[in-house]
Amino acid sequence: xxxxxxxxxxxxxxxxxxxxxxxxxxxxxxxxxxxxxxxxxxxxxxxxxxxxxxxxxxxxxxxxxxxxxxxxxxxxxxxxxxxxxxxxxxxxxxxxxxxxxxxxxxxxxxxxxxxxxxxxxxxxxxxxxxxxxxxxxxxxxxxxxxxxxxxxxxxxxxxxxxxxxxxxxxxxxxxxxxxxxxxxxxxxxxxxxxxxxxxxxxxxxxxxxxxxxxxxxxxxxxxxxxxxxxxxxxxxxxxxxxxxxxxxxxxxxxxxxxxxxxxxxxxxxxxxxxxxxxxxxxxxxxxxxxxxxxxxxxxxxxxxxxxxxxxxxxxxxxxxxxxxxxxxxxxxxxxxxxxxxxxxxxxxxxxxxxxxxxxxxxxxxxxxxxxxxxxxxxxxxxxxxxxxxxxxxxxxxxxxxxxxxxxxxxxxxxxxxxxxxxxxxxxxxxxxxxxxxxxxxxxxxxxxxxxxxxxxxxxxxxxxxxxxxxxxxxxxxxxxxxxxxxxxxxxxxxxxxxxxxxxxxxxxxxxxxxxxxxxxxxxxxxxxxxxxxxxxxxxxxxxxxxxxxxx
Length: 551
Ligand SMILES: CC(=O)N[C@H]1[C@@H](OP(=O)(O)O)O[C@H](CO)[C@@H](O)[C@@H]1O
Ligand SMILES: [Mg+2]
Known about the structure:
Helix content is 41%, strand content 18%. It is α/β, with parallel strands linked by helices. A 5-stranded mixed beta sheet has the order 1-3-2-4-5, sandwiched between helices. It has a 5-stranded mixed beta sheet with strand order 7-6-8-9-10. Strands 12-11-13-14 form a 4-stranded mixed beta sheet, with helices on both faces. The chain starts with 5 loop residues before the first helix and ends in a 13-residue tail after the last helix. It binds 2-acetamido-2-deoxy-1-O-phosphono-alpha-D-glucopyranose and magnesium ion.
């Protein structure tokens, strides 16, 4: 064997020592996340694992993204990307957890065990792509990842600062011999912008649609990349970028806007006024939400559920118009607003499924449809088209037996596919898709909002000594431990008209999340408050008791 596994521990020690005091951590919803000071050894080991994963996957490229997405500035994290841009296979999540938690003295043996169990030949090439967000500690953590890859004699391609979805795209392009596009920043931007311009045509404004978007970049990589896009858009869409230089996610960004239900700081007043159209992306630019303030001064949010309905509705119309038979489905999580689910099933007549939280679950489910639309309420999602769907649409665009109108519609659908980053939710691609549909319909945000009315909802955090005492099932909707908690939740929920509430441990933060919706804002707030206190009492709350959210 050409790779001496002794080098796994002996090499670049300063980058990877696991201290005795280091607590065990888990590969969660989106990889490992914690305070950046505790991550060097995690990064190094994920570098090792990525090299092994590449070898286990016939030397295809594997991605390693260094980011803590929507978390505060002091956190960082790492996630692995599988060959076709998917999240790391679940079985390997366990291997990742085990590898990260062994003491230094056991590292070499643990690597040897993975090689044996997974029949990995260390003579084979290993190819790993590394990207990072704009956090100031990301470059140092990236060094640790690179050293891990090199310790196993893998080949590293460093993409520097990129959005998470860009890295997914690069991995997919490379492993499909560039059939999906070129694995470079220019290739990625060029593909999206060409499709966007073709869909938009010459006329930048239509009906109530105005060519002006206010964009909150969360002081992260989403700002940086959008500034690059603006140059290439060349006026096809006027985007004003805010929050590009401050503290990442601090009082801004998609997560702040969605959780606090308010306009982020750093946006000028005129932006959120009734006529304005604003959007916020998160720290690694894989989610987006839209919003404005109406004439009465009320904040109006158009979140992932809305984006899903807007895009799915438009695509359904196009598919019907060009006369191809394709099965479309929409995938949500328990966090989806009940009113959106009702609207999709009963009005749009599109089947909906509910999966556990985390895009890997949604993505997986969406693969079952010819056209699968999946979005988390927080704005993370995309659309995936099966090979069958792509072929049928391509054929329709060239089919002389169809009307010219039908062929044109099919061609438009092909552009919509090109504008989509199918590999994973992508804030910039999703934003361009939303802009395209609003433009095509001649809609402003009022028009979009009019399709259905959200049930008022609240998302709360509860701090527990150990969040994992809470175990859930049925796509996160039912608590199975501690015993009796679900019955008590049911009793509280029954008091509220249209009430719905569920509780689950977060996979990215050391908290338990409580979701509540009801007929009125006051009821949703009260429901969340009661359930949060129940959890605090029955599951070992720490610190101060949950307080009632402001109305
Ligand atoms: C309620 C919520 O927004 N949860 C988010 C959050 O997961 P948690 O496991 O809830 O912390 O981060 C995930 C990764 O970004 C995202 O997929 C998910 O939707
Ligand atoms: Mg993110």
